[in-house]
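[Solved] Which block belongs to which protein?

Original post:
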Amino acid sequence: MSSQEIPEDKHLPSEQGDAHHGGVAVADDPFADPGLPVHKPRIQDIDDRAAKRSERTVAMLFTVSMLATIAFIAAYVIIPVDKIVYLFPLGKVSALNFALGMTLGIALFCIGAGAVHWARTLMSDVEVADDRHPIAAPADVKAKVMSDFAAGAEESAIGRRPLIRNTLLGALAMVPLSGLVLLRDLGPLPEEKLRKTVWAKGKLLINQNTGEPLRPEDVQVGSLTFVQPEGLEEGTHEFQTEIAKAAVMIVRIQPDDIKDKRELEWSHDGIVAYSKICTHVGCPISLYEQQTHHVLCPCHQSTFDLSDGARVIFGPAGHALPQLRIGVNGEGFLEALGDFEEPVGPAFWERG
């Protein structure tokens, strides 16, 4: 490069410094600590009215958080799950989801905003520098940490500002209620649903194949017929849920062959009705041995004796099949005389 190509504002090192280190000026310590800037007090540090305004602002944010949590719970209880509303520019949205999202978002945002505003306006903002130290803290360092913590708690003024402290504790205590309410949506409460079916006194026994009510003469000795309660229509919303508990099989046995006294009393002219749901894992029972009056579950080979109270004679099932008490109405049709007296299907831990 020629001397004509060197910019005029550039000079050789020897031209801009002294002879030290070849004419280049070098600082004694290029990484010297510049120190901390002079601390400038905030308006809240010098004006008590400004500090009070900030305190009220923080308390207001925490209070809004509490109100939003209450609104969350109210929305969850009041708004129907299938309600749809139009909101510009979102379009059609679920009213419940929108309300829950907004209220929970406001509750969490106000806690965060209140904490940030509290820290920036009322807590001490003096910068403190400290040297690094080994991980294993000696006793004097531990004492210093506890001292600093106590000083920080004092500087936060949480003890001197009960309005902020109480509203913060209230907001933090109420926000978890949202999670507790959401736990309710894990599924419907079973209540008595596992113990009861749609069978009731006077309900006709409807042949599942023909859809017609049955008369005693329609059931032959040695035959197996599957029935469902009157009024339970296939294709309805609750059909699958209810038929899973109410499915019944009826068998006609010679009355002299029935060994169990209660079974004989609950039958009609040798026609007995038992739950079709296996008491092992709930499989539908479908295999019947005419000579032995045994029914067999095809899933795990649990075997029940229908001539002896449907007791378990083989397999992993834990208890006998529940019996449905039946009779004949004034028109000559088979009808139920009530619901099962014990839960159908597999045992469950609440069962008493």
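(Second protein starts here: sequence line, then its structure tokens.)
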Amino acid sequence: MKPYKIALIPGDGIGPEVVAEGVKVLKAIEEVDKNISFSFTTFPWGCEYYLKYGKMMDEKALDLLKDYDAIYLGAVGYPGVPDHISLRDLLIKIRRGFDQYVNLRPVSLLHPDLTPLKAKSEKDIDMLVIRENSEGEYAGAGEWLFKGNPEEVVLQTGVFSRKGTERIIRYAYEEARKSNRTLTSISKGNALNYSHVFWDQLFEEIGMEYPDVETYSYLVDAASLYFVTQPERFGVVVTSNLFGDIVTDIGAGITGGLGLATGANINPEKSYPSMFEPVHGSAPDIAGKGACNPIAAIWSVSQMLDFFGLEDWGSAVLQVIREVLKDKESLTADLGGRATTEELGEYIIEKLIK
């Protein structure tokens, strides 16, 4: 039996509700597959923790997490805690501390009724965005000078190292080769005359090693347009931290909304645990009402299973999500149904283990 240790950080708002449904899916898989076992440890970190202790997580958090096989995060953010604190002092601290430099964001249409692009089908909207996750525009480098004075100056510095840029681009080339898809780089080299000229240069340099991979390179403004008008242009996409954050929200918009958006923060070398999360935020307005959609959190379980090498189970979970989306009455209100969070989770498990 292969045991997997999973650290749970349910977090804020609807986070605990959706994580609970994802954990049920893993426990259901464990029940029928005697070759797998999952153990879970919950850590109470997040905004409530911050309001009580003045910090988003324990000072020794990374030491406490480092021996787990994966981290399963629900959501971070709540009124009363500034977003830059809730984000940087938990999510980004874990991403950078565990060198989770690959952010995998699938942008796949799981049911044709979900897209506002009514001329597009599942075949047209099926891409994987690979976002640099450790530096770039989110590196946190900069300075705030002469604060509160007329001479006030704020500097926000993007950090693009050769190591960081090469490894994310190479990862994307490998994924495009493995999946036999095109690779598109998204940058802004015409305006960002150092960082993104450097990015474009490395994309071309590394591409010389992958003559079998068909490549494209778009400026981020044009790419954003094509995400909406011609999403079929894209197979695998690689881009920087900021641009990846933005275009994947556009991707969520064309595939059914943030309630269906998932993300994996990967340390490919497995020197540290990787982290899996829905990306819909904490939605405090519906927290505790049993109204939130757990599908993104369960999709992130599918990503986790793939990462563990349990691709058959990962594919099975994603296929069940596709099937469930055909039955509108069994969905939550955001998707036009009447089910509670728990009812939808139970329905997914019922179909998975049938």
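Accepted answer:
You had them paired correctly. Confirming on the second one: DSSP finds eleven helices and twelve strands in the chain.
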